TrEMBL record:
Residues 82-298 form the Tail spike domain. It comes from Enterococcus faecalis ERV63. Residues 508-542 form a coiled coil. It comes from the Bacteria. It holds the Pfam family Prophage_tail. Keywords: Coiled coil. The keyword Coiled coil applies. This is Phage minor structural protein. InterPro entries: Tail_dom (IPR010572).
Amino acid sequence: MNFIDEKGRLYSAIFECKKTKGVNGEKSLSGTIYTNDQLLHGIGRGWRIVFEGETYCLTYLNPIDEGTRIVVEFDAVHEFFFDMQKSVVHRLLNGSNTAERYLQHIFKGSGYEYRLEVNIPAFKKENFGLKNRLTLFKDFVSSTGVEFSINGRVVRILDKVGTNLSTIVKKGFNLNELHIEKDTGSFITYMKGYGAFKDPENPSQGRLEVEYLSPLSKIYGKLEGDPVVDERYTQVEHLLSRIKKEVDSSYGVSVDIDMEDLTKAGYNYDQPHEGDYIMAINKDLGFEQKVRILSYTTSYDTEGQIIDHDISCGSLNLMDQTRISDASWKNQIENSIEQAKSIANFALISADGKAITYYGLSIPTGNKFHKGDIWYKEIGEEKVLYIWNGTEWWPLVDKSVLEETKRLAEQAKLAGEDSKRTGEEIKRKSLEMNQEFQRYETDLIALKKENILREQQFNSITYEILKDKEEIQRHKNEINSTFNELYTQLDQTFTQFSAQDMKTETLVQQTQVNIEQLKTTTGQLEENYISLMKTKADLEEQVSLVKRSSEEMTTQFGTFKQTMVGQLETISELQQDASTIKKTISQLKTDSSGTKAQISQLEQTQNQFKQTILDQITGYHSEQQQLANRIALMVQKGEVIARLNIEAGKTLIQNKKIFLDADTVYFSGKAFIPMATIKDLLVGSAEIRDLAVTTGKIANASIDTAKIKDLAVSNAKLGNISADKITFGELNGAKARITNIDAANISNGFLDNQRIRSNSITADKLAVNAIQVGFNNYSQNLKISPYNLSFYNTNRLSGRITSEGMEFWYGTREIGRIGENAKIGNENIRGVTMNLESTGDYIAWSYRKTKNDDAFTSMLMLDPRGKFTGKAGILMDVDVYLSRVKPNYTNAREFLRFGTIQYSNSYYSSLLNDSGKSGVMFGGAWLYLLHDNKVIPVEDIRKVVYALKGLGRVSIPTSIARDGTVNQWKTITL
């Protein structure tokens, strides 16, 4: 496993994880990271994981401090789910559309590809869009009932994922645990369905109604479920299929399996995946059914090795279980000979050229099949072979079953050889026991002889031991008793050895089972021992670390305690210093306040004297300042300021009002008053410069002798002005309006044309070219001449209107023209043309996409030399709608036209001949041919071609009699 950060840098680490895959396309990881400090402390948003060639996006992180180390728990999902959830479709799709159209709507621009491998009729949706792509895709899957799988950046969409495997999961072999959940409460055997109304405007006329009664009702009775009410159903077969599926799937079994991976032990079998069908057997629970894997979780250790598999399954529903209750693996193996015979017959029939091959999901339809005809039924991702035996389609054992049979036979052969070796070993041990028994028997004979000799000796010395007769008799009895017991024991031992020989065959049969159990037990004990030793080592290491950490913490605590004592003493000293500083600052503040109070009253230095008085109640503030070159007085209240500044040569008085209370005020020298209102002014002799009287009235005023220079009168009435008094200067017509002027009195100068107003001016009153010259003088962008009107961009010619139309120029380079024109050779054929000169490059029709766009976008362009686009010709960048197209050939029989053809409840874009009976239809991924109003999928042609491809020399019947025999053959090479 590799980790990739948000900048694309790669990291490696030791980890353990679980990978989960499901029939709904689920691919996820969860696990724990143990090493690489840079990874453990830096992992976060935007990180991805590469595992087994697939990329996953992190969705959850949980760093954990375990005391001696940091570990990180994580969850991640396949990048398809993350990327699709973070991308939104900003378009809406409405109405009835094909599955291809919906998938294009979802996947366009997503960076992922899809492969639709199932036929789905068109269906209707409204407002399909404006959501993230993952939500829309889940909506599509739930609406169509399909399943999907993800490989890299390709999404396969199928009716069902997975295959029908021959893998067996059995207790005592590779099954650790099996949990079963049965849903009996929702089981039903009958349901009704209500579809669309016959007349939506008049519901009283009824609606589409169907019903379905399961064959299981004969056993369990009529158990009715809630009806399906959906006005979208208009066809009986579609609604019937829906309620049939609801009834048949109402009772199901959920199975959880903990399976051992025996491939590590050398067993060769197909490893199951999500969607596959496997056989689960637990005879203790009485469970032996074919179940489908819904999700599949594989656990990996830190070395990347598989530990085990946790599988969640859903078994066949009760209806399916009833249909296949008579089938078993034993029947398949027993019938394999007969099926092989059928295969041989099929091969002969196919060699004769009489067999017909069919492909598809559903059973072939027709009234006439030939014995030996072939049907390849597609089940998920596999194909199963069926053959017509004269009355029905008979399934043949597929390749996986034959391989499983072969594997079981090999295992049985190996088990027989092991049993044979075990039997020989037991036989050898039995011979050794027989030899041992013969030695015991020889010893017994010798003992009997020794007893006889002792008896003879006893008789010979009887007279010597008469006194001890009772004791001798007792010893004799003991010897006889010992002899009998020993003989009995030897006889029992011989019987046991005989019985053990009789059990040899039973031991041989049990040997293989014991060996397998010992293998499993030994492996588990070895794993447990290794795990315990590892755990022991880890615990010892942890104890050592804890002990060492405890000692270090004790030492550190002592040092810390001493440091704290020192710091407390330092803090006490700092507090005392701070208290002293605080008192000093307080004293300084007091001294500063007193000084400030004194300064605020009076301030005198060597260079200046300043006095300030402030009244806190009234808000008045006065200030007197005296310097060597200036005396300033100021009184202020709020924003109102009165100021008097006296300098050498200048005095400034500033206030809102200034009152002069005196009998006489004299202004010596030259006084300047910028603006004043004077009442009852008497001026004896004055010189007035730049006098402006705006709205004033001078009544009964008499100016005997006045010198007025630059007088401006804005609004005044002057009567009886003598013209002979105006001796020089210019009278501006824009400022004066004079009526009844005799033109004879205008001797020189000119009249501004802006001020000439007349209802009509006769041509004899105008100079030659007067309008042309005046217009050209007026505008720099438009120039007029007797022959054309020219347009300029600055000083560059850009266009010209002539009697022939509108010309377009770029300076001295002519680009083209638009105007009225005629056909050469027939002047009566007239029209409007757009002409591109040899010095022009292209003609385009363009539009502005939005109001704020800086440039126009070309819709249609003529680029004869390819200077603009790089491709010479006519280029279009918008949708084009054409109705009829006729080839530029005089003998062409019919027009070609574009249209739509309805096929299988969908409409396809088509290129047709004018009659509409033949043409080509275009689907999302498939192509169709229309021949005499009949649709032929190109996919069917492709299947036939690929089925025949590479067969070599093949004989094809060219003439067939009514009885089915072939009259004539033709041999071709494929």
